[in-house]
Queue: 3 jobs
Job 1
Amino acid sequence: LLGELILLDRVDSTNAQILARLEKGRGHGAVMFAEQQTAGRGRRGRSWASPFGGGINFSIGWQFNGGVQLLEGLSLAVGVALTRALAEFGVPDIRLKWPNDVWCRGRKLAGVLLELSGDLTDRCAVVVGVGLNVGLPEASSENIDQPWIDLNRVHPGIGRNDLAASLLNQLLPLLETYPVEGFAAYREAWQQLDQFSGRSVRIVSARQEWTGVDRGVDDTGALILEADGGVKRFYGGEVSLREA
Ligand code: BTN
């Protein structure tokens, strides 16, 4: 399943690089790791701190035969796959925060950024970008706007190469089978890992905020928020979840 494997010391953003390849019709199965990113991208237009040796940062390019509807819930399924890779090494206390942050002990351990390319109605392509904190210096905190945790603090001694290999061994087969399986194959697992299940949360967009109880996700990966006797669904792109 693996195409080109690119290992770099430094790059602007592995997501940007893989996206550029997909836009030229290349890059299916391409994987790029970078020790350092000078313009690492996070969700909702934020940056992703990626100093040298501070994490496992990589992107995978994948081309699908079909439209963007095939990708519904994919970012949540990627979150589940990351937790499975971490479980292989016995990392404790791993949870997910909707839509796809990996949390540990109430803090963020890893983030996922999906970016789309191509003809979204017919042959869509996606970049799956993953950033996992491993060896991130405390000094990086200045640039990070939420509580974070480092894998070395939770479970030191995991080989970086071993972990990188396990992550790919989870993610590449997921991408291969996702058009057939869809989110239905991951929904139950996602809900089992939901850090905020049954708890009061806030959903925050650039201009608005909603408060309610986290009632899990539907079969498209939308978050179900119960408030004022009704439910409201939220889709990943523009909103973020916070503890109420
Ligand atoms: C988030 O939680 O906001 C998503 C963070 C995603 C970061 C990764 S690091 C590798 C890849 N390249 C990027 O520029 N971003 C993603």
Job 2
Amino acid sequence: MDTDRLLRELTDFLRIPSVSTLPAHNADCRAAAEWVAGELRRLGCREVQFLASGTHPVVWGVGPDVPGAPTLLLYGHYDVQPPDPLDEWTTPPFEPTVRDAKLFARGAADDKGQVFCLLKAIEATGRPPVNFRFLIEGEEEYGSRVLFELLRREPERTGADVVLIADMSYIAPKWPAVYTTLRGLCYAEITVRTAKSDLHSGEFGGAAPNAHEELVRLLARLKTPDGKIQVPGLYGAVRRPTKAELATWKSLPFKDGEFLKHRVQARALTGLKGHSVLERLWALPTLEIHGIMGGFTADGAKTVIPAEATAKVSLRLVPNQKLKTVERQLAAAVRRFAPKYVQASVKFLHGADPATVKVTHPAFKLLDQAFREVVGRGTVPARAGGSIPVVPALGKGGAAVILTGIGLPDDRLHAPNEKLDLKQLWDGIKVFRRFYELLGARGAEDGR
Ligand code: BES
Ligand code: MN
Ligand code: MN
């Protein structure tokens, strides 16, 4: 493997600041889409198109025909999360740097590095052994609205035997995984207005309502200190994992103490008592406050009573919950918890239903074999706490959806100093190459 060349190429991709949620980066998202399209052409795709060409195009590709072989759809995303806080990066987020055999950059693991891995594994096969299709989108980190619409209009795009998604990590070093569920997401802004405009806190303080005070009280009502979410009805659809599944989680290489000390790096873990940490991360809904806006936050001091305050919040949803229902439940809870003299409103920004996939299709055995051959251990089934909005839609046409990844749990996705271990990347290219070849060889028999 010409690792120097590969590293140079990945570095070019990572240098493009394709932050999908910030309009200032629209041109960069376009440039990242062009980069992907260029790679697909180099792989000999007979069709490469930008679909739903709103701001961040979906890159669609059709690989060379391989008669009799199965069809494999590769899904991934070229967009990334905002890199802030910038001063916490050791080297700048869009100047990819290798330290300690790790490549540091925004998108190194989520998901540009993994898209790169899937594509370079095709190149490594020499001649593609299966019928490749590609859907590489640029809005995953912002809810995938464009791709959703597209798949509703053109569901035939997902007509494949297998969909492969590499947008996750091993569950521990040397422990590759396939994921059986993803959590869903309901992202919202809650706004509270208490007066026509801001007021002098001396003239009015003591008698006028304060928007920030009302907002924090409202937010505090939404969750108890021990982690129970107080949105009425929210837990109604939640099913506990079976005893058997909970038991298998006990044998995974996951230790609460290590998780706290090395990954969370806080003083204590929080959340619902009576449920293991993995159950809290994988099988229970959450409510998080991401930020609170409004009032006076600049340098110095200003004595003012704010008239408006907004919080960005999100709930993670677990299998059997529905985004639409949860949106209704959250809006009702906000109406119910806000006092009469407060105007409270909820605006939903984006969201995703949770996803469940079966891991029984023969292709899972082939991926297991590929990992076993290359890294010495096959895949363990696990669940994931994160979300990939289009996963339920990708499986609608009957394809087996494989959720896996080559990252490691300490890659710091969405956070400062995101990285990808180079060993994971080189191994990943070998694993996927082997998987493609196994799938191609089995195609004529039962691989489909
Ligand atoms: N790759 C992640 C999803 C992920 C992360 C799954 C870790 C499993 C483990 C993806 O890029 C992501 O971050 N998705 C967003 C979706 C949202 C913005 C709609 C997420 O989960 O916050
Ligand atoms: Mn991702
Ligand atoms: Mn992400």
Job 3
Amino acid sequence: MTDQPAPSTAPAAAAGAAPGVAAAGALASHDDAQVLLRLTDVHTYYGHIRALQGISLEVQRGEVVTLLGSNGAGKTTTLKTIHGLLHPRKGTIEFEGHDITRTPAHELVRHGIGQSPEGRRIFSRMTVLENLQMGAYSRPDKSGMKADFDRVFGLFPRLAERRSQQGGTLSGGEQQMLAIGRALMTRPTLLLLDEPSMGLAPILVEQIFAIISDINRQGTTILLVEQNALMALGVAERGYVLQTGRIVRSGAASDLLNDPEVQRAYLGG
Ligand code: ATP
């Protein structure tokens, strides 16, 4: 987490929610200058299937914000919609004050939105080094690449040791590190992470979350999709809970952790 001031939480508490937890889709009143990403009433469809039914959320500069929800709630769809892989049928997306609702994915990378997708999607026949170079491919300045390799290898010493190994022969945890490292090579202002802990042993989950905190401390804002709600709320400042395409809860991570409904549904309480 960063040293930035904690954002205010939404004023209205949800019925039966812990203090500070807001009802469906309510937005905290954030200082506009600090808002990096803003979704307003976003509706996304797959054909006639309405996957997002009016999502509104904000991410402030310097924050880690987590998006929680069960299988099929719409978490990945939200990230894909932000990243221009899907376009909303209704609603707007703003990044750094610019409307990016219809901006294609490859342009968003140049604007500073990086993503590490669900299921990792690394290039299995390429080496670790080549995978990272692919990440840097679309960046505007090539001059800072050495510093970025150093940053990635500093965060993930394991990748440095295995720089000549083919991506497909890395372990699951190492592949996850590579996917995050590749996203960092684009020097994102905002990093979208989709289920970074998926399929990892508990010890590796701890490591990945520690690295997520390090990345954020180095100045990268993060929107984190996770099923591991406990870990996600541990690193995040704030969170949103998605249910069948709608936000049903939002608030400070500490308040969500104490929310009986969140505990029951996502924390095994
Ligand atoms: P998970 O945690 O299981 O990955 P999720 O919260 O990320 O779930 P999404 O993948 O965003 O959920 O899916 C949201 C809804 O959209 C689901 O009902 C899903 O079946 C549907 N959906 C997702 N992708 C497609 C697609 N390509 N075509 C049709 N429907 C889809």
